[in-house]
Amino acid sequence: MPADGPTILATSGGIRRGTRTAIELAPLITHGFDLAGVSGRAPRLCLVPTAVGDQAQWITWFYEAGRAAGVDVSCLTLFPMPTVGDIHGLLAEADLVWVGGGSVANLLAVWRVHQLDVIFPRLWQEGVVLGGVSAGSLCWHVGGTTDSFGPDLRPVTDGLGMLPYANGVHYDSEEQRRPVFHRLVGEGILPAGYATDDGVGLVYRGTDLVEAVSEVAGRSAYSVFREDDRVHEERITPRLLPGAT
After folding, report:
1. What's the rounded Cα separation, in Å, for the pair 171 and 56?
2. Closest CA to 9 of 170, 130, 164, 135
3. Residues near 61 by beta carbon (within 8 Å), at least 6 away in sequence
4. What's residue 1's pLDDT?
């Protein structure tokens, strides 16, 4: 079921520690199904865990979480070869494609080998909701801050660029994130962009940010931009989602 238009849900959340399962699907993922207009049947989610090297344990946890939530989960893995011959076809069956966290630098390199840099913009235009957490948020943007290269954050500037902004993730939980993001925007290494605290997501329709949403009370999103040779940060108050904690 396609969304009303090209839609991306870029987050620092969506998954939380489970009670009967290792992890559970949190309200940001549920909101992805709402954006897709799912009604009267089980939502369909395709997990893309490239950023963690298609770790089998993570995939198992995700399937268990989906089963507990009544979600039909499929998975696209690329190691040692793609799950299917028709990657576009597999992803197009989903209401929500969810890209997990990990190394965004590795993710982008592997995706380009398998032409996902061409496939994802096509799916986006076809109305499949594209979403994800951390690396799965950064990837849709021009770039952002990443620990893909080591513990000291560095810029990644070769994102898919479907969204013409920089992206900052884990803004409140990792002390380097805010100052490095500000510095990179101030130096012009990254364009102006948006950042999210843990538990917060950004909803884009086309390339327009239309809303910030949160699965955790008291968290925020931010607009970060350069003006008059200074970096400015403006808080964006998110809408609290049903089921938020």
Report:
1. 28
2. 130
3. 21, 22, 23
4. 56
Residue linked to tokens 């810029």: 155
Q: Is 170 a catalytic residue?
A: yes
In tens, the pLDDT along 82-123 reads 999 999 999 999 999 999 999 999 999 999 999 999 999 999
Whether the Cβ atoms of residue 168 and residue 196 lie closer than 8 Å to each other: yes
pLDDT score at 168? 98
Of residues 134, 137, 148, 214, which has the active-site annotation?
134
Six-digit token pair at 52? 């963690």
Spell out, as residue ranges, where the chain has pLDDT lower than 50.
none
Rounded to whole angstroms, how far apart are CA atoms 61 and 185? Answer: 37
CATH of 7-238, one of 3.40.50.880, 3.90.320.10, 3.40.50.300, 3.40.50.720: 3.40.50.880
Residue 4: predicted pLDDT: 79
Distance, in Å, from the CA atom of 73 to the CA atom of 64, rounded to the nearest integer, reads 9
Bridge partners, residue 225, by sequence: 232
State the chain's maximal CA–CA distance in angstroms. Answer: 52
Catalytic residue, from 141, 170, 182, 214: name it. Answer: 170
Helix, strand, coil % over all residues of the chain, rounded to 5 = 25, 30, 40
Rounded CA-CA distance 196/200 in Å is: 6
Q: What DSSP assignment string belongs to 51-105?
A: GGT--HHHHHHHHHHHHHHT-EEEE---SSS-S-S-HHHHHHT-SEEEEPPS-HH
Q: How many whole angstroms from its chain centre is CA 128?
A: 14
Let me know if 141 is a catalytic residue: no
Instruction: Write the CA distances from 35 to 119, 141, 182, 225, 242, integer angstroms.
Output: 20, 19, 31, 28, 14
